[in-house]
Amino acid sequence: MKNGLATDRRPDHASGDRQRDEVDLAVRSAVAVHGVRVDAPVQRRSGAGPSDDGHVVVAGRGLALPIVPTSPYSVAAGRLLFDGTDLGVAATPVSRPRFYDLATADGVPYSQLARLHSTDVLATTVLQTCVRYREPERCRFCAIEESLRAGATTRLKTPEQLAEVARAAVRLDGVRQMVMTTGSTAGPDRGAGLLAECVRAVVAAVPGLPVQVQCEPPADLSVLAELRAAGASTIGMHIESLDPEVRRRWTPGKATVPLAEYERAWSEAVRVFGWNRVSTYLLIGLGEDPDELVAGARRLIAMGVYPFVVPFRPLAGTLAARDGARAPEPELVSDVTARVAAALTAAGMTGADQGAGCAACGACSALPQAGG
């Protein structure tokens, strides 16, 4: 091993002699785990959830890739390279959006209120604190409060601020969807009420903009209808793993919410938002048996819930990184992703059909390359 990479095994890359329209699943999985060397003007460092990446357009798709100075993959002169060899795939960093140059009337930079993801997704964490962020409840892969400590964002975004940023991002940079997540609150709605206020303001300012909301399952499921009535197009309620032991180890606070409550919330969300308008993250590499992970994904698909499978990566500022956790092997990512994508295809379910949210964007997962 060298720099954590297997050096006795080279990926089976296709020849770079001709331009390819799509990056294959093996390469997509490898760059998801090993990252790339690239100067990316659009980056997301720390923050909520399991992704912490630079944004690059590869073979026409926006991808969120870890920036790793020791990676054998690089982006240079508009191409994706492996150890300096052209893989025949066009690759360019996403350009810095123009709305980043603006600020609110009281001087808050727009970039502290919402960020560009991929090429056309506006994303924000409405509340940048989480009631579960202190040990022993803290999710081991999450760094939601680290970006706040670094001064890269604000604790609470107001509906008026987000409406202002969304209007500018659509007008100046062609944003076509928005994602709103939140740290969990101690209240029974887990922060969903605040999300509803923000969605209402954004869709009033930018009619027709698809918006996904993301929160924990609320205790009172009637708030799901409130979110839909406010104008949310889709919803994500992320469990990360369906394995009880993995949940207790990786998401100890969220694991106190039984799987049955997630299932009730997903079922009600499908009723309110519709089939393939509800999603959940499933992380590859937390120690869950791959066959069980795929079987769980199939159960979710049968419910009408999109299982967004994403490789775990240890982010700076997380408990996982502190304790030396490592990302999964690319072969595992490819295997699980391909099997889940096949199940999605059989069900006629695609992430793109959601219109807004992580599944619709697809930048953090290899599912789009596998047909999901």
Structural class: alpha/beta
CATH superfamily of the largest domain: Aldolase class I
Q: Which geometry do the CA atoms define?
A: globular
Question: How many distinct beta strands?
Answer: 12
Q: Terminal Cα separation, in Å? A: 32 Å
Q: How many distinct folded domains?
A: 2
CATH architecture of the largest domain: Alpha-Beta Barrel
Radius of gyration: 19 Å
CATH topology call of the largest domain: TIM Barrel
Number of helices: 12
Helix content class: 25-40%
Q: What is the ordering of alpha helices and beta strands?
A: HEEEEEEEHHEHEHEHHEHEHHHH
Please state the average pLDDT score. Answer: 93
Q: What's the CATH class of the largest domain, please?
A: Alpha Beta
Question: What's the topology here?
Answer:
Blueprint: H1 25-34, E1 54-58, E2 61-65, E3 73-76, E4 79-82, E5 85-93, E6 115-117, E7 121-125, H2 146-149, H3 159-173, E8 177-181, H4 192-205, E9 211-214, H5 222-230, E10 234-236, H6 244-250, H7 259-273, E11 278-284, H8 290-303, E12 305-311, H9 319-322, H10 330-347, H11 358-361, H12 367-370
Helix pairs in contact: 1-10, 3-4, 4-5, 8-10
Describe the structure concisely:
This protein has 372 residues and is α/β, with parallel strands linked by helices.
Please explain how this structure is put together.
The longest helix is centred in the C-terminal third of the chain and has 18 residues, at 330-347. It is built from twelve helices and twelve strands. It has a seven-stranded mixed β-sheet. A five-stranded antiparallel β-sheet has the order 2-1-5-4-3, with helices on one face. The radius of gyration is 19 Å and the shape is globular. It is α/β, with parallel strands linked by helices and 372 residues long. The chain has two domains: 25-93, no CATH class; 98-370, TIM Barrel (Alpha-Beta Barrel). α3 (159-173) crosses α4 and α4 runs parallel beside α5. β1 (54-58) and β2 (61-65) form a beta hairpin.
